[in-house]
């Protein structure tokens, strides 16, 4: 049992570090000078954006590992999964709205607050839940189509289709549009933004050993692809943020991002398998993070703002290199202390979900 749950916990541990790194590097755009610190932060920010794709990859992996026959359950599956995360979703949505009202003087009518909660818009990263609820709804259908493609040896068609579907949604989302029906449709179908990563997670569970062998035999190809894609995406970002030219380059980034983050996920997948066979401090730490991943994902954003304010009081700014590691340490340590405190009270699971005893 311990071995069976260790691999998903390791993957979720990488998710925690990736999400916190992503929100640490959020501040790179605040640095106005084209300095080496800013450029380095920009590259690190590009890499750290693997976190949300990895969340979706792990979700696909976990969905199919626990729900191989969900194609028979249909709406009962959606209801069960939806109710399992409803309490923390509502609590943190209210917490984020309260924080915006208290710290940023934001004001909401009851109708506006209800709309933000229902649409998963109380905070930027709550769009993750919007996507997750979408996968709860379409997973039985997706699983049925996935199984059909497997039986007829057409998985290559399945992979191409989910990749094209994801890219198509990204393109539509980035085209300026004021039509409310179109905007609402894009919000409802947020899950399509990540459907390729989610499907890769399903494939990784079914073809676990084959995937590991493929990664091992194509290590040089993956490293070359990582470096080339990082350089190309970095060039597009530099042109967008500092040269303010060629907005079309943003659309060029979509397939490049897909390749880059898929490569990073493959490398982390391989490394998680290596850690799983060890009895090391790094393995235990990653599993510890993975065990609290749900609560850490929700609460760390609060400490991002707290850390930023503390560092500002100490006269540190995003233009200084030391700002970033200190912000990361503050965010991680305070989040973990909060998790430990909540895990010790009877009502803590409403905030952090159910955690295992390791």
TrEMBL record:
Sorted UniProt keywords: Cell membrane, Membrane, Transmembrane, Transmembrane helix
GO cellular component: plasma membrane
UniProt GO MF annotations: O-acetyltransferase activity
Entry-linked PANTHER family: O-ACETYLTRANSFERASE WECH
Keyword Plastid appears in the UniProt entry: no
GO biological-process terms attached to the record: enterobacterial common antigen biosynthetic process
Name used for this protein in its record: Acyltransferase 3 domain-containing protein
Domain Acyltransferase: 10-339
Subcellular location(s) per record: Cell membrane
Family: Belongs to the acyltransferase 3 family.
Superkingdom of origin: Bacteria
Membrane topology: Multi-pass membrane protein
Segments crossing the lipid bilayer: 43-64, 85-103, 123-143, 191-208, 220-242, 248-273, 285-306, 326-347
Pfam families, per database record: Acyl_transf_3 (PF01757)
């Amino acid at each position: 049992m311990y071995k069976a749950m260790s691999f998903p916990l390791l993957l979720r541990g990488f998710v925690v570090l990736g999400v916190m790194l992503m929100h640490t590097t959020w501040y790179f755009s605040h640095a106005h000078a084209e300095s080496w610190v800013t450029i380095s932060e920009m590259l690190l920010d590009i890499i750290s954006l693997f976190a949300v794709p990895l969340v979706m990859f792990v979700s696909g992996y976990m969905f199919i590992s626990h729900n191989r026959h969900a194609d028979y359950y249909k709406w009962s599956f959606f209801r069960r999964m939806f109710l399992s995360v409803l309490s923390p979703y509502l609590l943190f949505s209210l917490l984020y709205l309260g924080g915006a009202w208290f710290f940023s003087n934001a004001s909401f009518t009851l109708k506006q607050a209800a709309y933000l909660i229902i649409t998963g818009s109380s905070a930027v990263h709550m769009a993750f839940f919007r996507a997750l609820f979408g996968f709860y709804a379409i997973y039985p259908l997706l699983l049925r189509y996935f199984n059909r493609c497997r039986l007829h040896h057409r998985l290559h068609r399945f992979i191409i289709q989910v990749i094209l579907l994801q890219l198509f949604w990204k393109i539509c989302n980035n085209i300026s549009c004021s039509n409310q029906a179109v905007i609402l449709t894009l919000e409802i179908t947020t899950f399509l933004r990540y459907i390729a990563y989610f499907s890769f997670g399903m494939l990784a569970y079914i073809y676990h050993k084959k995937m590991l062998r493929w990664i091992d035999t194509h290590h040089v190809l993956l490293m070359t692809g990582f470096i080339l894609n990082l350089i190309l995406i970095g060039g597009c970002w530099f042109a967008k943020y500092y040269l303010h030219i060629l907005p079309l380059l943003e659309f060029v980034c979509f397939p490049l991002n897909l390749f880059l983050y898929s490569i990073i996920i493959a490398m982390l997948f391989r490394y998680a398998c290596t850690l799983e066979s060890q009895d090391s401090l790094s393995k235990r730490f990653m599993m510890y993070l993975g065990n609290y991943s749900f609560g850490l994902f929700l609460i760390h954003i609060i400490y991002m703002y707290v850390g930023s304010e503390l560092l500002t009081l100490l006269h540190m700014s995003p233009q200084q290199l030391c700002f970033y590691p200190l912000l990361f340490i503050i965010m991680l340590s305070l989040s973990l202390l909060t998790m430990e405190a909540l895990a010790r009270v009877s009502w803590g699971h409403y905030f952090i979900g159910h955690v295992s005893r390791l």
